[in-house]
């Protein structure tokens, strides 16, 4: 897991308390950036590298990297130069480095590095920089952002293939709107490995995945009996998701199914270890059933339009899985807040935290970068891709979470691992992303 922070301030303060000064941190940051660029340029003969420099700390990191690369070009934007930038600029000038005086032809370069603004940007990009970024977007060069792509969250933004974060991952990089601009997120170590304090949460990685571990002595009952309350199509997908993810028995409460692997039920007829409710289901009277009061649950889809959902908000063994529109309904239902989807998508972390402060259940806010939260614990998965933007993907996820709940994972662990596995299946899919569908998602669970 990688630590997530709102900005670098508290992290750098910790490093300073441990003995690193600002100059040494900057040197380490620049070395890490230079080494990353070297790695990316290995397969390019005589790679031409261009640094686009602001005049604050982000630009100074770039100047250090240039010094260690020894062979690069740099174009400095005409902003007021900070003291730390001037010091690094003087070092380069003393060894004979010459800065470009005119705006370069961006098509001439193999690698372009954005060192203009870091995470502290709090104003709109000026017209000149917007124009430069638009020109760079036409280049086929490898694009690397130092710490954060300049203009992230604005109409014009540097579109990076890689973002090298200085020390910790910034929360803003994991908002849904950032997905297409940040590329692959990497971490630069600034000199000391420390336990990061004041984190916003953690970014889950492949190595964090935990699956149901079967033993030779197990029978189907040991892995849980999951009930799915949904319509035929959504319920079948959820049921298959639960089965392929390790559940021993899955019963679908519906009139019919398109899979012979699921048992059909009219109601709860036998032992039940977990349930997923709501996918395409119009009759939600089951939410009033007392037999669900001690059963771990996944509540999805139509549940977010039903007032009985509020009965489950303060249960630690319940997982809610709304997409942004459903989350808007949920906020209205349980907090009486009229928050539009567009506003939620701009501030996903903020609204997830607001909800989780108030209620005990686990929340999974679906999207390009799903957020999983319970009280003050928060996790993000960013390894999924556009292949998951297909009808039925969310139904499969509900079944997967239910499978882990049935196997006695805690609600938070079930949500974390199911969301991570869900994303990894899409990432592992090597064919055209447009050809991916919910059944391929179910099939892909076999390969984890």
Automatic annotation (TrEMBL):
It holds the Pfam family Carb_kinase. The keyword Isomerase applies. Binds 1 potassium ion per subunit. Residues 1-198 form the YjeF N-terminal domain. It catalyses: (6S)-NADPHX + ADP = AMP + phosphate + NADPH + H(+); (6S)-NADHX + ADP = AMP + phosphate + NADH + H(+); (6R)-NADHX = (6S)-NADHX; (6R)-NADPHX = (6S)-NADPHX. Transmembrane segments: none annotated. Residues 203-448 form the YjeF C-terminal domain. Its EC number is 4.2.1.136, 5.1.99.6. InterPro entries: Carbohydrate_kinase_pred_CS (IPR017953), CARKD (IPR000631), Nnr (IPR030677), Ribokinase-like (IPR029056), YjeF_N_dom (IPR004443), YjeF_N_dom_sf (IPR036652). Keywords: ATP-binding, Isomerase, Lyase, Metal-binding, Multifunctional enzyme, NAD, NADP, Nucleotide-binding, Potassium. Its cofactor is K(+). In the N-terminal section; belongs to the NnrE/AIBP family. Bifunctional enzyme that catalyzes the epimerization of the S- and R-forms of NAD(P)HX and the dehydration of the S-form of NAD(P)HX at the expense of ADP, which is converted to AMP. This allows the repair of both epimers of NAD(P)HX, a damaged form of NAD(P)H that is a result of enzymatic or heat-dependent hydration. This is Bifunctional NAD(P)H-hydrate repair enzyme.
